[in-house]
Amino acid sequence: MIELEGVPELIDPVMICAFEGWNDAGDAASTAVGHLDREWKGEVFAALDAEDYYDFQVNRPTVALEGGIRKVTWPTTRLSVVRAGGGDKPRDLVLVRGIEPSMRWRSFCNEILGYAHELGVEMVVVLGALLGDTPHTRPVPVSGVTSDPDLARSLDLEESRYEGPTGIVGILQEACTHAGVPAVSLWAAVPHYVSQPPNPKATLALLNRLEDLIGVRIPLGELTEDARAWQLGVDQLAAEDSEVAEYVQSLEEARDTAELPEASGEAIAREFERYLRRRDGQPGPGGHATDAGGGIADGREGGTGGPGSYLRDSSAPGTGAGPSAGTSPNAGSGSGPSSGSARPRRPSAKDDTAEERDESGENGEGDESSGRERPDGDQDD
Fold it and tell me: 160, 145 in Cβ contact below 8 A?
């Protein structure tokens, strides 16, 4: 039974989800949702029962003292709601932030979609981050992927063609497809040689792309300065090691060669349009979900349905049960130490993955659109 006491009727609601773990390299995605919650002062209205979905030997509860009283905090997934934007076209965001569950993924997705149904959510956007052969000195590649051909055309997204192991991001998007709920995944590529969190540059890139997608101006706070400081810090650390500096230069050359035609045209135009919108305080080109040229409404195949079971054991093969956005086994927060300085890891022989790059020369984004995925031996370093 879903209880929604205290939640008002929402305006053009969009659900934004991110999960720590396998699909969250550099904690970029979960930090992005945390930023939205903090900037718009979100209020938690629901939390999933941790006992149902988490192995507490994998994700352990924490104990803290509050006023001399010990308090246990259990790992879980929480939902909050915020009023985004303002003026004539406000809209509400339902923020889902938690940890990738250890078990019962189908039930987990069904419960989240039950809330989406009860709240009248028009679209689900899932944020993720993966490790890739991308230099930290260049703009962070962000891929927008969907399994819905109509949505892909109306919002200028890629259609998912990935096959292989997936995480909760891919399973949730598949559940949305079965439920007839329009769903999009946004993926940021994080440099694999500096994978430890935080990565404010990747978080900033996800928020910029999200802003364009949902048509709401997102306050960035200190995130822009944090991203600039992060890059300067990595620049200094990379300069201390000639092998790392040479490796970064090779990534820069490959990236620049692959993106030269786009950089001279469409990409520059997009960045200029974003600058003008921010200067004038206008929403992004996507507008509200209901204004997207009918694409989102048309993307519903059979309506949203109810909060029943959307994923079953007898799911038909070939429906894209893999990650809808090219999730990667090297896209986990465990890919690097969780503390300490952001010192680049010295490249090794196993980092030489040139033969695995796609024709674009960029694994972080190219693998998603090509349907391939680069395993990374350093996932659990």
Answer: yes
CA 264, CA 14: separation in Å to the nearest integer? Answer: 33
Q: How confident is the model at residue 280 (pLDDT cuts 50, 70, 90)?
A: low
Torsion of CA 162, 170, 216, 48, to 10 degrees: 180
Find where tokens 């020369």 sit. 361
Predicted confidence (pLDDT) at residue 247 exceeds the cutoff of 70: yes
Can you spell out the DSSP letters for 247-292? HHHHHHHHHHHHHHHHHTTHHHHHHHHHHHHHHHTPPPTT-SGGGS
CA distances from 362 to 137, 152, 277, 305 (A): 14, 22, 29, 39
| Tens digits of residue pLDDT in 92-118 | 999 999 999 999 999 999 999 999 999
Counted residue by residue, the chain has a size of 381
Per-residue tokens: 35: 């930023």
Percent of the chain with pLDDT over 70: 66
pLDDT, tens only, 193-206: 988 899 999 999 99
In sequence order, which residues have a C-beta less than 8 Å from that of residue 246 and are 6 or more positions away? none
Sign of CA dihedral 214, 199, 171, 329: positive
* DSSP β-ladder status, 91-99 and 78-84: antiparallel
d(CA 114, CA 304): 10
Cβ atoms of 371 and 162 within 8 Å: the answer is yes
C-alpha–C-alpha distance, residues 167 and 187, integer Å: 13
Contacts of residue 194, defined as CB under 8 A and 6 or more positions apart, other chains included, come to 136, 234, 336, 342, 343, 344, 345
Contact 37, 144 (CB under 8 A): no
pTM of the model: 0.70
Amino acid at 94: V
Q: Locate 261 and state its tokens.
A: 């035609």
Cα separation, 283 vs 68, in Å, equals: 47
Compute the distance between CA of residue 344 and CA of residue 249 in angstroms, rounded to an integer.
14
CA distance 253 to 32: 29
Asked if residue 110 lies in contact with residue 310, where contact means CB atoms within 8 angstroms, the answer is: yes
Query: Using CA atoms in the order 241, 245, 247, 248, what is the torsion angle rounded to 10 degrees?
Result: 140
